């Protein structure tokens, strides 16, 4: 409760008064540290936990990502995938885990991120992980930002359900990779859904940026 209002001091006080914290209480404290930008304390607590679940791992990975420590988010994800709990299938990455690490890969300007992103995608395929709307959208955004447009389009075409964020991701990917006309064609496909258009910031983007360029 305290962590939601940024009162980290009180959150720590309440946690310290718990003699034997359960994993839910540990995870709540991890989330509190992450939301308040104290990733040093989050990591210290994470390492001291007697047991971790997917929420524990994801809270810290997402905390790194949200606080701009993208390389650390990717590093911890790779550590997670090598952990015995994951290898033995006691713990499995969830939607939030994938979205956080793919977002980190998409926004990290370093060599090797394409390979890492493809490895994550490959793991999902091999393990038959269901591609939710948000995982699919994260993949599209990732491939678009690293210049692998063909993969972005392939993921988009394989998705049965698409939301506003999905349209935004594929249109932005096309536009940012020099495919302005295709971006406009894709935009036209959105016209049948008024709700999508009204919620899409791409409407203004296309009108101001793409149209004058054609």
TrEMBL record:
Pfam families: PPR (PF01535), PPR_2 (PF13041). GO terms for biological process: RNA modification. One of its GO terms (molecular function) is RNA binding. InterPro entries: PPR_At4g14850-like_plant, PPR_rpt, TPR-like_helical_dom_sf. PANTHER family: PENTATRICOPEPTIDE REPEAT-CONTAINING PROTEIN. It comes from Populus alba. Keywords: Repeat. PPR repeats lie at residues 22-52, 53-87, 163-197. This is Putative pentatricopeptide repeat-containing protein. PROSITE patterns: PPR. The keyword Repeat applies.
């Amino acid at each position: 409760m305290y962590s939601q209002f940024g009162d980290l001091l009180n959150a720590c006080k309440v946690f310290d008064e718990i003699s034997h914290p359960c994993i839910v209480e540990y995870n709540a404290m991890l989330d509190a540290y992450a939301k308040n930008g104290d990733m040093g304390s989050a990591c210290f607590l994470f390492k001291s936990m007697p047991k971790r679940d997917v929420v524990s791992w994801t809270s810290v990975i997402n905390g790194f990502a949200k606080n701009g420590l993208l390389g650390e988010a990717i590093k911890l994800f790779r550590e997670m995938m090598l952990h015995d709990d994951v290898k033995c299938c006691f713990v499995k990455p969830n939607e939030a885990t994938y979205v956080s690490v793919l977002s980190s890969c998409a926004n990290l300007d370093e060599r090797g991120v394409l390979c890492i992103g493809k490895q994550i995608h490959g793991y999902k395929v091999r393990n038959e992980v269901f591609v939710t709307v948000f995982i699919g959208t994260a993949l599209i955004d990732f491939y678009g930002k690293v210049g692998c447009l063909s993969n972005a389009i392939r993921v988009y075409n394989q998705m049965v359900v698409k939301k506003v964020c999905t349209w935004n991701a594929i249109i932005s990917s096309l536009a940012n990779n020099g495919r302005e006309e295709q971006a406009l064609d894709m935009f036209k496909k959105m016209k049948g859904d008024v709700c999508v258009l009204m919620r899409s910031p791409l409407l203004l983007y296309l009108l101001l940026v793409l149209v004058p360029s054609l």
